[in-house]
Specification:
Strand order of the largest sheet: 25-26-24-27-28-23-29
Strand content: 15-25%
Oligomer: single chain
Number of helices: 49
Structural class: alpha/beta
């Protein structure tokens, strides 16, 4: 039977010769596989095939008949294998699913985004025609960009969303009206996101506004200060001299009413003067009156919102965007305007060609210079190349040099694995033929795998692991293994390519023959010895007719790098020197003649040498994005010649090449490439060696820049389909940016078989302590070791020395190499960026300590290199970087600083590095805002939980791995330690704990000065603390009605009475069972069983807001039902009259009149709000008439009563039975619990938090003792009575009867404190554990709840006992309600 060309058939080999293999076919026909179609070299067929082996081959056609005249076919194993691969790839592509499919979709998104970004950059820049100035002499055109053109698009979008218009306030600020209670949260969120990406500051909370004027000039700052003290979030401006404008934001209409009233009150206080009590110290401050006029805008149905343009941020961004167009040629109406030379947005400077000066002048004179545009040929080329590589791999994979790339680029598990024996054998070969004798075992193994790999090898190179050295070794080993193979060494960074080539200069052999090709202005000095043009100049070859090479040479010679280059270092000179080194001539005379000849090679021999070098070139160095065969601009213009500049350079090396093709592509810095960028060079190679580190920075994508450009594209789009596509892409970027940013190298590394991937596991940069901080990032990759751990690195002057010797008390000792400065300051939003002024101040303190330190000077003087002296300042945020740069001026001539973003610092290292983390668990509106713990419990600022850029473990790894000798981290450990990434790893907590647990690590607590500041109370009669407002019986008569007759017909001379006590925590009721028994009983016969009594917990105090206004909805829901219930009980018990009293929460409430009126209207009950003095006297009275110690108390010259409540503690002093002083300490058990639960960080040990509570008591008592003066002094022993949960529970009695009249000594109180302390510490380690425990749900744990109350409240008693000469405390189980009852029973109330 016959065979057709292209048929794939199965054959059996019957004979093998040096020229090929022979097979039998049907009948008498046979076939021959030539050695080139195996493929192999002549004489090596038997190494690849065996007689009797069955294989698949492709029929190439009929060849010469055999010696018998029978038909013989030419066959190819190589083409059959290629066909099989193509079929397999087609199958793989068809069956793509899961993550592989997602990667293709992400790649497609990248391609679409790149096209749209290019379209944005190609858009005309709108100009202000009248601003244009042409300087003919200098050939310069200076013109202003029109910044309003884009804003007009924004206004149009705004009107569509809110169906209203923006109202101008200033040139860069606007307002609009909407109903805050009705506006859609979705629309609000979308608008916030839109504003953020367009550099518009939108304030999502509406605001009240007002104006102050008519004050003396010298009072302006005092007025501002007092406003800011009371309203930390207020925004103040001075539009004109003698005027102050202010804005106060709110979140709801009800809050608007509160703030509106509060603003009136505080401005009135400023005008009339006031007295303020310091909540920390109790000291009073007098504020004198300030003569002024003011107006606060009335509340309206619609709320006023505020938008302002972030002018600086927008100009900075546009400067960067337009700055990327420098050196591009711009045109207007078909007239070439010139080359963009300088951008100081909105000012643009163009260099105008002399021949175009008159045309440009005409454009200006006629007012036609309205916009300019450029075609961006270079960027268009790159986008087209990205599209080309995408098309190759997704649709035309059969045209790839290795079709398998279309499979393994999406799923590296499809790449061919390597037999372990081959790897072992290659390692042995490398050990015998090293270029670098200092390679470690991990580098050797990774290189061996890369050499033996068939189609893919992946190498991970963590920081400081000697990646450039290893790449040079890899190139060397590839050339040794296959000298004729062509290798492409590439990276997106020119310097990475040049550094790797530079390492090859240490070879004494000429096996590797590299040539560097690329644009002339992109070479570094390390790459110039390999530049094609430099070699040709050395050989004396004229390339003036080659336009591309001539332009490259011109650019090289004009570059700064060329000034550093010595043409004696050209690689061909080194080649000749290597020949000399290998010379074995023994006769000195002959050797000298040979040496002279080599070093003075004639012109013709130089040219011969160059041509031989070029002919055998086996390594090309080039950047990824430059590599392409086609000139897309020429294609679009319909030109015949469409070769790219790279292709022309490539052909200058490989003269007969029709296409770009390499046997191996070695790609460095691959982890920073997107999938499409990664693929660009790989499509030209048969084998790919991809090198990177997915634990370092991912692709360099600017989320905000992409959103900015996409959004404006969307605003301009008129086609609905195009607009929808842009919105879809915008949403993808906004919500899936982590997928876009994820390194494709990581996917390949994770998927690849272990036999084709390697990791460099030893780093030679960082001190071991710093290595310990970052090694967590490499655990899944096998770990990261310090390569010089066995060397002497702690001594000064050794090869691996990481010694610094800096010794500054309170900051650093010579043994410290890792320090965390733990801050608690808030972050501040600056557009889309963030700053943290507390961290800036902390870093300034560190630098000032170093600058003034003799030990640091001694350390610094050891170095001669400026780079070694530089202190790296790294941060994640551009706004923070600006503040860090400003620190340079503070230390000019003292310190050398290198402030940088983390993205720019990759690839660099410094001896000392300080890292500012920026993000915090709270956020301030501006850098002057003080914490307000009354409004924002716990932190004093609005809470926030985002980490932003810092979420990326890659960025953290890069930031922390730049330091060689000393790493200082500045950041909020509480915020960062709470974060876990998607894999559940607490990366920041691991860093913090590593430093904390290292004996040589150091944690420094840093408190920003602003954090110590506290806002003043909003009024002398209002405070967030309970019990700071009192009753004046003379003026508050309407709050003094105490009795309510439930039975109007009752006998008024002997009615049945009850007491209703409205306290801060509960509503209590006390009813006597038999009043005659109670009235006639002696003190000794006082019996709690004679009373019907109970208390229902209402937590009334929680209804007070930050301004001490009672939320009447809360009161109606939580308190009023209990009052009504008690009224029903009293009626059922036939009570005639009820005496209702209210204490601290009611006394403090700003709207206490409303509360009293509300109770009267709903329950028909009058309420007397007691003064502090009345409360103290009534409580004392209850004990006097119920205690068996009555006589002892009456005869004691000095009696102290301590009433410890939730919000405060009342201390009353009686001398000879007269009340001489009563003082309120604004600290009760509830307040102390807040300090314990809310004011401490979650990771604070409970033991430390308890000490903080004790310290707070001491601070408050110092002020108390000062104010009590002589009242607390007693020569004799004081008799003390006490009421309150802590002291009554400390008695151990189960109820009031069992607790009443118990005597507590100092020792008993101490013992109780110790018991409670032990119980608390046994159950809770940190404040976070305490906060997470649900006391309400855990009814069985009331004991621990009581123990916490006792542990917090009892230390106050110890101090009071010492100061007042108190030996014992007599515990009262009666309290206020018994006092009121007994006073009215005995008819001695108000006496």
């Amino acid at each position: 039977m016959g065979y057709n060309k292209g048929d794939i058939i199965t054959v059996q080999i019957f004979n093998i010769t040096e020229i090929g293999a022979f097979v039998r076919l049907e009948g008498r026909t046979s076939g021959m596989i030539h050695f080139s179609e195996v493929p192999c070299k002549y004489g090596q067929v038997a190494d690849y095939l065996q007689e009797g082996q069955q294989i698949k081959v492709m029929v190439l056609g009929e060849g010469k008949p055999d010696k018998y005249g029978n038909t013989r076919y030419n066959l190819s194993k190589k083409k059959a294998d290629e066909q099989a691969i193509k079929e397999q790839v087609a199958k793989d592509v068809k069956n793509l699913g899961g993550e592989e499919k997602t990667i293709r979709e992400i790649w497609k998104v990248f391609t679409q985004i790149n096209k749209l970004l290019l379209q944005y950059m190609k858009q005309p820049i709108v100009l202000i025609p009248d601003s244009a100035k042409l300087y003919k002499k200098d050939k310069k055109l200076v013109v202003q960009a029109n910044t309003e053109s884009k804003f007009n698009l924004f206004k149009k979008s705004f009107a569509q969303k809110f169906n209203t218009a923006l109202i101008p306030i200033t040139k860069n600020s606007w307002s609009f009206y909407a109903n805050v209670d009705q506006i859609s949260p979705r629309i609000m969120k979308e608008f916030e996101e839109e504003c953020e990406c367009l550099y518009m500051n939108f304030f999502p909370q509406p605001f009240l506004e007002g104006k102050i004027w008519g004050f003396k000039k010298d009072k302006e700052e005092e007025i501002k200060k007092q406003l800011e003290e009371c309203f930390p979030n207020i925004v103040i401006s001075t539009p004109r001299r003698g005027e102050i404008d202010f804005r106060q934001s709110y979140s709801s209409h009800s809050q608007a009413r509160d703030f509106h009233a509060a603003l009136y009150d505080i401005i009135l206080e400023i005008k009339t003067g006031c007295t303020i009590e310091n909540e920390e110290t109790g000291e009073l401050t007098e504020y004198p009156p300030i003569d002024l006029e003011y107006r606060i805008e009335a509340l309206e149905e619609l709320d006023k919102f505020y938008i302002e343009r972030n002018v600086f941020g927008m100009q900075e961004h546009e400067s960067v965007v337009v700055g990327t167009l420098r050196e591009e040629v711009f045109s207007c109406n078909g007239i070439e305007v010139g080359k963009l030379k300088n951008v100081n947005y909105p000012s643009l400077t163009f260099i105008v060609d002399e021949k175009n000066l008159s045309n440009v002048e005409s454009l200006i004179d006629e007012g036609k210079l309205t916009k300019v545009a450029t075609d961006l040929s270079g960027d268009s080329e790159k986008v087209n190349r990205l599209q080309e590589s995408f098309d190759y791999i997704t649709e035309n994979y059969e045209q790839l040099r290795n079709p398998m790339l279309a499979s393994y680029l999406f799923d590296a598990s499809k790449a061919t694995p390597i037999d372990q024996d081959k790897i072992t054998s290659r390692i042995e070969t490398i050990e015998k033929n090293r270029l670098n004798k200092h390679l470690n075992e991990w580098q050797v193994e990774a290189i061996a795998k890369a050499v033996e790999a068939k189609d893919l090898a992946v190498i991970q190179g963590p920081p400081g692991t000697g990646k450039s050295t290893a790449i040079a070794e890899l190139i060397w080993q590839l050339a040794l293994a296959h000298p004729q193979d062509r290798t492409l060494l590439t990276s997106e960074a020119n310097l990475a390519v040049d550094n790797a080539l530079d390492r090859l200069k240490f070879s004494e052999h000429n096996v590797v023959k590299p040539i560097r090709i690329g644009a002339g202005d992109r070479f570094s000095s390390e790459g110039l010895p390999y530049a094609l043009t430099e070699m040709m100049k050395w050989a004396g070859i004229d390339f003036s007719q080659n336009r591309v090479l001539s332009e490259d040479n011109e650019a090289i010679e004009e570059s700064e790098e060329y000034k550093l280059f010595n043409n004696k270092n050209v690689v061909l000179e080194r080649w000749l020197n290597n020949i000399l080194k290998r010379c074995h001539l023994k006769d000195p005379t002959v050797y000298d003649m040979w040496r002279t000849y080599i070093l003075n090679l004639p012109q013709d021999k130089r040219e011969l040498l160059f041509n031989l070098y070029r002919q055998h070139c086996n390594v090309i160095g080039a950047t990824c994005s430059s590599i392409t065969e086609k000139n897309y601009q020429a294609i679009e213009a319909g030109k015949d010649k469409i070769e790219s500049r790279f292709m022309k350079r490539y052909k200058s090396v490989f003269k007969d090449a029709e296409h770009i093709s390499f046997d191996v592509v070695v790609q460095d810095e691959a982890s920073k490439a997107t999938p499409s960028e990664l693929s660009m060079p790989l499509v030209y190679g048969k084998k790919s060696v991809i090198i990177g580190d997915h634990r370092q920075l991912p692709p360099n994508l600017d989320r905000e820049d992409i959103l900015y450009k996409l959004h404006y594209q969307g605003l301009q789009a008129t086609d609905i389909e195009e607009k929808e596509q842009i919105i879809e892409l915008e949403n993808f970027v906004r919500h899936n940016f982590d997928q876009l940013e994820k390194s494709h190298f990581e996917r390949l590394f994770v998927q690849a078989n272990d036999s084709i991937k390697g990791t460099f596991k030893k780093q030679y940069r960082m001190h071991p302590d710093i290595n310990d901080v970052i090694k967590q990032f490499y655990i899944k990759d096998g770990g990261l070791e310090c390569g010089f751990i066995d060397e002497d690195y702690e001594s000064e002057g050794t090869p691996f020395s990481r010694f610094h010797g800096i010794n500054i008390e309170g900051l650093i000792a010579p043994e410290n190499h890792v320090i965390w400065i733990d801050t608690n300051s808030p972050e501040i939003a600056e557009g889309t960026s963030r700053v943290n002024m507390g961290e800036v101040d902390a870093i300034n303190w560190v630098l000032s300590q170093l600058a003034s330190s003799a030990s640091f000077k001694q350390y610094n003087d050891k170095f001669t290199s400026e780079e070694d002296k530089e202190i790296g300042l790294i941060t994640f945020y551009g706004a923070q970087l600006k503040h860090l740069k400003r620190l340079q001026a503070n230390f000019s001539g003292k310190l050398t600083l290198k402030p940088s973003s983390v993205d720019r610092f990759q690839g660099m290292e410094r001896n000392i590095v300080i890292v500012s983390l920026v993000r915090s668990n709270c956020i301030a509106e501006n850098d002057k805002q003080a914490p307000d713990f009354r409004i924002y419990k716990g932190l004093g600022y609005r809470r926030q939980s985002d980490l932003g850029f810092a979420k990326s473990p890659n960025r953290l790894n890069v930031a922390l791995s730049r330091a060689k000798r000393l790493l200082i981290i500045v950041g909020n450990s509480s915020h960062y330690s709470a974060y876990k990434n998607k894999d559940g790893d607490a990366i920041y907590k691991n860093v913090y704990d590593t430093i904390k647990e290292n004996p040589c690590g150091r944690i420094i607590k840093w408190e920003h000065q602003l954090m110590k500041k506290r806002p003043r109370p909003i009024s002398k009669n209002r405070s967030a603390n309970l019990n700071t407002r009192d009753i004046n019986p003379e003026t508050d008569g309407h709050l003094r009605v105490i009795e309510t007759w439930l039975n109007p017909m009752a006998n008024r001379s002997n009615p049945k009475i009850a007491v209703l006590e409205l306290s801060t925590k509960a509503v209590k009721c006390l009813i006597g069972k038999d009043q005659d028994v109670i009235r006639n009983a002696s003190v000794e016969a006082f019996d709690f069983r004679n009373f019907i009594r109970n208390a229902y917990k209402t937590e009334t105090g929680k209804g007070l807001d930050s301004q001490n206004e009672m939320d009447m909805r809360f009161f109606n829901k939580n308190v009023m039902p209990t009052i009504l219930q008690w009224k029903r009980i009293m009626l059922s018990e036939h009570v005639d009259v009820v005496y209702t009293v209210a204490t601290a929460a009611y006394r403090t409430a700003k709207n206490r009149d409303e509360i009293v009126a509300f109770i009267k209207s709903r329950a028909g009950i009058n309420v007397r709000i007691l003064s502090k003095k009345e409360e103290s006297v009534s409580t004392m009275f209850a004990y006097l008439f119920s205690s068996r110690y009555k006589q002892q108390m009456l005869t004691s010259p000095h009696v102290v009563m301590i009433d410890q409540g939730g919000g405060s503690t009342e201390v009353s002093v009686f001398k000879n039975n007269d009340l001489i002083n009563s003082y309120s300490i604004n600290l009760g058990t509830t307040a102390l619990r807040n300090i314990l639960f809310l004011d401490s960080d979650r990771d604070t040990p409970v033991s430390e938090a308890l000490k903080k509570s004790d310290q707070k008591i001491k601070e408050r008592l110092v002020v108390f003792y000062k104010n009590m003066g002589e009242a607390m002094q007693s020569d004799s022993e004081s008799f003390c009575i006490s009421v309150g949960t802590a002291i009554t529970h400390a008695t151990g009695g189960k109820n009031n009867a069992a607790q009443h009249d118990r005597v507590m000594t100092r020792d008993k109180i101490l013992e109780c404190i110790d018991t409670c302390n032990e119980a608390i510490l046994n159950q809770f380690d940190t404040v976070g554990d305490l906060n997470d425990f649900d006391f309400e749900a855990s009814k069985g744990n009331k004991k621990i709840d009581d123990q916490i109350t006792m542990r917090l409240g009892l230390p106050m008693f110890l101090s009071l006992m010492d100061k007042f000469n108190i030996k014992d405390i007599h515990v009262s189980g009666t309290g206020l309600w018994y006092g009121i009852y007994l006073q009215h029973l005995y008819n001695i109330a108000d006496k």
